[in-house]
Amino acid sequence: MSGTTRPASAESADRLKEQLTAAVAAAGDAYRHTSRLIRVLTVLGQPSSPTELVEQTLVVLSQVYAADVTATARLVAGRLQLTGACGIPEDDPAYTEGWPLAGAAEAAVTTGRAVARTGAALDPATDVPPSLTGLAPRSAVWVPVGEPGAMDELLIMFRADDAGFPPTDLPVLGSVASRLRLAVEARRRSASAETLAAFGHRLTSRLDLTSLLDEAARLLPMLVDAEDAGVMTVRDGTASLCAVTRPVDPPGDFTAVPAEKMWGWASLVSGEPYAGVHQEFGVHGSVLGVPVMRDGSPAAVLYAFRRDRTPFRRDAIESAKIFGNYVGAAMTNAELYLALGESENSLRLITDAISDLIAVVDDTGRFVYASPSHERELALPPGRLLGTAVAGLAHPDDRPAVVAALADPAHAPKVEYRLRTGRDTWVWVESALRPMPADDTVVLSSRVIDERRRLEDELRQRATHDPLTGLANRALTADRLDGALTRASAGDHVGLLFCDLDKFKEVNDRLGHEAGDELLVQAADRLRGCVRREDLLARFGGDEFVILLDGITDLTDVLEIGDRVVRALETPFSLLGERVEISVSVGGVLGVRGQANATTMLRDADAAMYAAKNAGRGRVEVFDDDASHRSLDRLELRSDLNQAVARGELIVHYQPIVELSTNRITGFEALCRWQHPRRGLIQPDDFIPLAEETGAIIGIGEWVLREACRQLVEWQRMPGGQQLRISVNLSAVQLQQPDAANRTLDAITATGVRPSDVWLEITEHSSIRADVTEFATTLRDAGVHFALDDFGISYSSLSHLKRLPVEILKIDRSFVAGLPATDTDRGIVRAVLAIADSLGLAVVAEGIETAEQCADLLTLNCRQGQGFLFAQPMPPDEATALLVTGLPAPVAGVFVSAA
Amino acid sequence: MRKLPVGSGTSSLDDATAAGTAAAHTAMAGLNGADPGLVIVYASIRYDLTELLAAVRAVTGDTPLVGATTAGQFSDGEFLPPGTSVSVLVLGAGVYRFATASVGGISADTMTAGHDLARQAVDAAGPEPTPHGAVLVLADGMAGDMQGLLTGIYRVTGAAVPVVGGAAGDDRTFSGSFVLHDDKVIADGAVAVWIGSDRPLHVVSGHGWQAHGLPMLVTRVEGQVVHEIDGRPAAELYNEAIRSGYAERKVPEGARGDWFTKHSFGLIEPDGTQLIRGGFLDDEGQVRTFTPLPEYCAVQIVSANPDDLLDISEQVVADALSDLDDAAVMLTFSCIARMDMFTEREDEEAVKLQKAAGPVSTFGFYTYGEFARTTGVAGYHNATITALAL
Predict the structure, then answer these.
(1) Less CB within 10 Å around the terminal CB: N or C of chain B?
(2) Which of B216, B297, B375 sits opposite A68 (nearest CB)?
């Protein structure tokens, strides 16, 4: 075996190695080509100005093609004008003089195809421009760009070595070159658009013709890349020079030039720009003329001049044309402004006549104009207001809002504030602000909104206060108690006194309701004397008063204040000239901030009060924690309640809902009662809160709903009963059950009733959670309707309307009680009806007790109601009987404007 | 053409004034009485550089001076490791036309800085042009994109003028480097010498790294952080291709523990060769390169061993001197990454260079990046040795 013969396996290994090397090299080439293209495309996609874009692209091309020189050139007047270069020193004359169009460059432009030359094929005389003789390039490529048949740009690359540009590179380079051109054009267009927009603003801010045309002459060269500009106005076939950026040389009279002698008039008169080269009047180079067309003929001509013969770019000409339109619009503005000055007097007459308060305020917030209505409405003569700060007239509390709104009227277009009138009174005013950017002023359009604010305040007060005594109500107390308990940082404690007048019912029965109310008012006054400024005195309804002691040391303090209360009410009252003696039973508890809870404190104070009452009236009983737990009475009731449904102790009473104009019964409201084996009939107000606390309400609520639906099915079988419907109250606790929607719907459908005959009433102040939407949607889809109970009591009423698909509002009995005599109540009822009307909702008035209330409701266009006037809540058999007989017809003559 | 008078001197004295004086005296003596035309100073950052310059200029007078801080130096076969040492080279006047310039604050915009630097240097050379030229650049390589600096220079000088030089070092302390111009010590700066010549000047370079594995496309880069390669997390790929198997490698004294210089990225050039870009994993586990990689560039993993790297030094000398028979000095710039890979053979390069150069003086320093622009605008390198013979 010869020593030089290599084993076949070694040869094959070598061959494999070679193949591998070749494959890696091929992959390298492929990656390099890909990389080239992506890098060029990346640079084309980056944000930059047109000039930067060209420069960056040429740098990248130099890197990825190892080209010593990369350049772009435009064909201008038979020469190549450099538009960008990488590798040619910046002081090379090529940048100003360009290169001759010869050799391969000429061939590329003429044929429209890329030309690559290497080594001997490269002719130093014609292919290599003078700038590059020192470099002695050995290979080069010329890539033409432009419209087919009109190539006017070249991408050129030179290399000092003769590696050459293979034919496979040419299509890529062609694509790169045309993409570069497109990208540059796009950048230039967007730059022009930005410049045009900015210039448009500058033009419109010129409101007199002379300065407008001066500005136009100054801006035009920047827009079209020219050195100078001039403007000639044209009127009746005669032109006159009215603005120039450089004096005409030699000077002459250019005030009455026949229009047809102007450069490019033939194009300009038809609305088209003109571009040419001229030598006269000190102009030696390219001229661009743009007509400013108004009413179909040039009202002016804008000229731009360049000292060299480089023609204006097509996109520059387009921009100039748009600029001409802007100038035209600005000229119209300037003329309108002039006319406006003349018509200002008539405008003043108009603003003087309107009743809204119109004012113009300068950028320091002072009146520069005030309409005469200021004197009529606010007793503030306009003359006195001029130069006065608006904020100076505003209430100190509202001043920051006014100042903020004036500082940024675009973001605070409306502001409400109290304003001091010339009669030295405060009135609520709403001002709409409208900025006038032209002169940095703000136009205020204001009106007095006292009445609306008063109603709103009244509603707010109603929501949180007892109307009889003006004391806080249960809602406000609970809120304040919650707040006091969460202030864990304070070192002291919170006390609560629950006060119940003894023998109040007797006084009421003996002397009448009015005397009873008077007693409550007097008692409230005396209690006010017992509390400190930081405490809160509340009436929970009936004869129950509650005192929240915010900041006490211990239970002894609670006891002490409780004693003070007892003593304060010991002195006899004078009612209807009669001496009346009453006493008060007081229960007190102490709550530790951060630990105690409002509901429990109220419950325990209540229990302590009962303990005091049981111990012999006119006493104070305070519960410490242990004692609280002993409030067995309540606990017992609670535990009884859990069994009530099972033991069949609950019953449903029904109160008819009637059509007020006819007394026809349209449906019933189902109301739950508890027939306690030992305590007798318990009212819902006494056990529903307990049931809500314990959760028993869920079972009770469902039972009531089923029972009511079942009853409705029975009634609907009676003659004429098909149209009846049933209203059932739903507790907020029920709503919060995870499967509330299905459980409720099951309860309804199980009875066979039509869901659309069922109205679920939700108490407005029940804490409706934001996420009841699913519940409401499911039930509404099934046909069930929703009513909002006790509407008007809580200030946040309208927000509930958004969350629930409510179709009926029930006006709370407290408002109805004030009808027709009390203006505020009437105003609120009217407001509720207006809200309902605007939202397309029906209204049911609750607690109608007198024929006068009923008549007044009809006058206010309220159609439906319920109350003792028609019937009390009654057991089902009585309700059935009432359905058979019907209610007595309304007394003729009472329902005056029922229609 | 008359031969360029050259003198060089070094000192490792601890005192700046003493070291500067000693090195400058030796260098001046080498001129044999010829007038000095340019002084080049390479020094450790451990010196009080202002004092050092004052000491050198007390000897060399107003002769234009340029210089840089280094990560080790070499002069006429002598290797001066990172640590107190200074090398001074004095070139005689009259053979080449030298004009110097410097700029500060280059990190704000390296391209504008490069343009201004070249403009000032070219203008300082006077209105009468020389037929040929080259630019010597020394810059703070940690002050941003050094290719930008070259692009700026290219705008002024064009394709016909090669650029050579190096990025200043700081003895691997990464505390910041300086360039020197006359009596000024400049941070975040660059200094340049326009070298006007009657004959063409050639910048040469080489690296000795070998590519292996398939090419890959860098698909996402932010500055010096490489996020993705071939669409995959770069750190994952780096760990697979570069780090694995090198965990126990001895780390050169003073170098970063994560400095895996045996492997680097090779940026595939238009002619198929590789431009070396050193990479490392930073504290956050991100792949970083000393010089930003262009997004969507094609790379290959490259590796090298000391013998390949030392062989290339000889090749570079041969290329630099190939068409010159009267060269006097070879200005050489070798990368710190190379020295790291020589490990215990770190003094061999200086000896090899001088041996290959024969009678021609060799003078240079270990850099944080090399400038060698010869073809097109690209010309910033890592892990490379580059030279210009005068």
Answers:
(1) N
(2) B375
Is the ipTM reported for this complex over the cut 0.85?
A: yes
| Closest by Cβ to A39, choosing from B272, B297, B375 | B297
> Which residues of chain A neighbour B298 with C-beta distances below 8 Å?
28, 31-32, 34-35
Cβ separation B298–A67 shorter than 8 A: no
Token pair 């210039």 is found at: A199
Q: Give the Cα separation of A529 and A527 in Å (integer).
A: 5
* pLDDT tens per residue across span A256-267: 889 888 899 999
The amino acid at residue A402 is: V
Nearest to A163 among B154, B271, B378 (CB): B271
* CA separation for the pair A124, A292 (Å, rounded): 51
DSSP A796-818: THHHHHHHS-EEEEEE-HHHHHT
Find the chain B residues whose C-beta atoms sit closer than 8 A to any C-beta of A: 131, 151, 154-160, 213-217, 268-272, 294-298, 300, 375-378
pLDDT winner (highest mean) among A358-362, A882-886, A892-896, B152-156:
B152-156
List the one residue out of A70, A30, A288, A761 whose CA is nearest residue B215.
A30
- Which of B116, B145, B297, B373 should be substituted to probe chain A, the one whose Cβ sees the most A Cβ atoms within 10 Å? B297
CA distances from B51 to B20, B55, B171 (A): 8, 6, 19
Please compute Rg for chain A using Cα positions. Answer: 46
Higher pLDDT, A237 or A148: A237
User: Domains along chain A?
Assistant: 31-190 (3.30.450.40), 205-339 (3.30.450.40), 355-448 (3.30.450.20), 465-630 (3.30.70.270), 644-885 (3.20.20.450)
Q: Do B298 and A32 touch (CB under 8 A)?
A: yes
Could you give the angle at which helices A209-224 and A314-353 cross, rounded to 10 degrees?
150
Residue A243 pLDDT exceeds 60 = yes
Closest partner residue to B159 (CB to CB) among A25, A35, A135 is A135
User: What pLDDT was estimated at residue B71?
Assistant: 93
Which residue of chain A is at minimal alpha-carbon distance from B153?
Answer: A89
What whole-number distance in Å separates Cα of residue A581 and Cα of residue A702? 46
Structure tokens, A708: 């009511």
CA distance A650 to A807: 29
CB-CB under 8 Å, B216 with A32: no
Alpha-carbon gap, residue A792 to A222, rounded angstroms: 66
State whether residue A159 sits within 8 Å of chain B by CB: yes
Q: Rounded to an integer, what is the distance from CA A75 to the centroid of its chain? A: 56
The answer for residues whose C-beta is within 8 angstroms of residue B227's C-beta and 6 or more apart is B220, B221, B233, B234, B286, B287
Please answer whether residues A659 and A605 qualify as being in contact, where contact means their C-beta atoms are separated by less than 8 angstroms. Answer: no
